[in-house]
């Protein structure tokens, strides 16, 4: 299995993606790098107090539940694993839900820069924007050199919101904000995102869907975990200082391949996760305050997602030796499964077998392909 890699300066974050074809799930694996890992604090942000079903199975059902969560909170922080097709299908299903635009007028994304907001606004409003112009939205972010935002799933999401807006009156349309600091914006990555949320959402008494890599939303981190990174302690933890209890954090959990040379502190026992679920449908939304999931360790089920690759010993999981639990890390997870019986396919892909993948509603396209004038 091959990895798309970029030489690491400080940290390596391994990301993965899911693509659905003919009822099966293809997992696309890549290696990207970011320096966003936040400073450590022994305190964790308190979980949101939401009433959720014990299990919500299938993309469309999960989308309905996430939209209904806005009745109880102001922010739904939907963590992604970069370039996963399944993550894209889910967030598009959320914005296409008929109640979404009735409740939410703002979306803040990691794959857009603050300095190209006018370009993004024009595109989302339905104006003619060339592909070269739109590409500046993600190519002027701090992570553009990784190439991760060049995946078509991100342009498809913008196209989906544009399509939703085309059916709405002007005063009811959804606005998408780039949250990553572009050229000339000297704020740190998470400070910029939090500023956008405060100015465009909280101060206007609105609600927002926020889409970033899941690690930006963790409610806590292990002690001693890169305390040198300064003020970027996590978007949700920063929001909780002034707006406690108003954010609902959802993270993806499932089988991921690790960077070359890395080792896992604990091999995840996904069968344990599966046995605790009643449904066999994947993906499934699971509240992480529910037992036994609340007490499963982050070292076991998140240890394959964030690595430090700075030292001579190779890449080391940032959760190695941590006693933190899933219930401390987030409010809910979208569990995609972790079946061991996989077949290697084309470069960078594996095909899950014997897993029931719940498709979107029949006859409805989840993904929108962008068109250019």
List key phrases describing it.
eight-stranded mixed sheet, 373 residues, 16 strands, disordered N terminus
Task: Give the topology, please.
Blueprint: E1 12-21, E2 24-33, E3 56-57, H1 59-69, E4 75-80, H2 85-96, H3 100-103, E5 106-113, H4 117-125, H5 131-139, H6 152-166, E6 175-180, H7 189-200, E7 208-213, H8 235-242, E8 247-254, H9 270-275, E9 281-282, E10 284-287, H10 298-301, E11 307-308, E12 316-317, H11 326-329, E13 332-337, E14 342-344, E15 349-352, E16 356-357
Parallel strand pairs: 4-7, 4-8, 5-6, 5-7, 8-13, 9-16
Antiparallel strand pairs: 1-2, 2-15, 3-10, 10-13, 11-12, 14-15
Largest sheet: 8 strands, mixed
Return Rg in Å. 19 Å
Q: How do the strands of the widest beta sheet line up side by side? A: 3-10-13-8-4-7-5-6
> What does the overall shape look like?
globular
End-to-end Cα distance: 38 Å
Number of strands: 16
Helical content, roughly?
A: 25-40%
SSE arrangement, N to C: EEEHEHHEHHHEHEHEHEEHEEHEEEE
- Mean pLDDT across all amino acids: 80
Strand residue percentage: 15-25%
Kindly describe this structure:
- This protein starts with 11 loop residues before the first strand and ends in a 16-residue tail after the last strand.
- The protein has one domain (12-357).
- The strands form four sheets. Strands 3-10-13-8-4-7-5-6 form an eight-stranded mixed beta sheet, with helices on both faces. Strands 1-2-15-14 form a four-stranded antiparallel beta sheet.
- It has eleven helices and 16 strands.
- Helix 1 (59-69) crosses helix 2 (85-96) and helix 4 (117-125) packs across helix 5.
- It has 373 residues and is an alpha/beta fold.
- It has helices at 59-69, 85-96, 100-103, 117-125, 131-139, 152-166, 189-200, 235-242, 270-275, 298-301, 326-329, and strands at 12-21, 24-33, 56-57, 75-80, 106-113, 175-180, 208-213, 247-254, 281-282, 284-287, 307-308, 316-317, 332-337, 342-344, 349-352, 356-357.
